[in-house]
Amino acid sequence: MNVVLRAAAAYWILLFVIRLLGRRTSSQLAPFDLVVLFLVAGTTISGVLGDERSLTAAVSAMVTFGLMHRLVAWLKARFPTFGRIVDGTPVILYEGGAFQEQRMRRLNIQTEDVMYAARQRGLRELAQVHYAIAERDGRISIIVKE
């Protein structure tokens, strides 16, 4: 039972830590992002399992993680405010021909990230971009000028 409680606590702590890391981690994985995620995951599993090395403890932890994930999904569907806290909201990064520097700093997104998203859409110049939006899942959407 101790493993289940630690796994539930670890899920919520990990969810909080991932939110602190920002949206970039969830979609545009740079090498340093991967290192952080692996270190956090390794540390989390050590804390959850502790000295327990049994298959039962590992399965209990995984099932608890799955149940916590289902609980968060249910809470997001039931309470939109909870969903905004957990997933965030779309944020405009580029509009009116200018980068929104303060918003970008807050999200740890650089101009190069926006340019990369524009190139992925086949755009050659920033002048072709009407809006760049950081989506809830971390992707950057590009709205092209007409």
TrEMBL record:
**PANTHER family documented for this protein:** UPF0702 TRANSMEMBRANE PROTEIN YCAP (PTHR34582:SF6)
Q: What family name appears in the similarity comment?
A: Belongs to the UPF0702 family.
Q: Where does this one sit in the cell? A: Cell membrane
Check the record and name the Gene3D superfamilies matching this protein.
bsu07140 like domains (3.30.240.20)
Which UniProt key words apply to this protein?
A: Cell membrane, Membrane, Transmembrane, Transmembrane helix
Q: Where is the YetF C-terminal domain?
A: 79-145
Q: Does the keyword Cell inner membrane apply?
A: no
Membrane topology designation? Multi-pass membrane protein
| Name of the molecule in the record | DUF421 domain-containing protein
Q: Which InterPro entries match?
A: DUF421, UPF0702_alpha/beta_dom_sf
Where is it found, in Gene Ontology cellular component terms?
A: plasma membrane
Q: Where are the transmembrane segments?
A: 6-22, 29-49, 55-75
